[in-house]
Amino acid sequence: MESDAGFLSSPVGWGVAAVLAGFALVAAAKLYGLLFMRWKTPFRVGEAMHVNRAEVVEWSNGEGLVSAGGELWRATSADNLAPGDDVSISEVAGLQLKVRKKRN
Fold first, then answer.
1. Per-residue pLDDT tens for 72-82?
2. In this structure, are strands 86-93 and 63-68 parallel, antiparallel, or unpaired?
């Protein structure tokens, strides 16, 4: 008479249990992300940025870096700009800003 030692008595049983545990971990991580991470601040790109003022950090040959909304952005402009100049954002094109010198 053979004895039934259980599902986890063979290597195949342990393998199946490991795969199921992996799926359960991934499902739990996804559920955590859906429930608790949705209140985090989203990335601000394009119209969602809600920033119309920036400051030039680096500039050369019509392009450079500006600080807007606490982040550095690549920018272009037809105006002659220098580091420290206040600029206004005229357009957001993908991850690049088009800016113009602020007139006083």
1. 999 999 999 99
2. unpaired
Same domain, 73 and 88: yes
The residue type at 104: N
Q: Are 48 and 68 in contact (CB under 8 A)?
A: no
d(CA 17, CA 9): 11
Question: Among candidates 80, 70, 81, 77, which has minimal Cα distance to 93?
Answer: 77
What is the count of structural domains for the chain? Answer: 2
- Could you tell me if residue 81 is inside a domain? yes
pTM: predicted TM-score of the whole model, two decimal places: 0.54
* Residues of the domain holding 23: 7-39
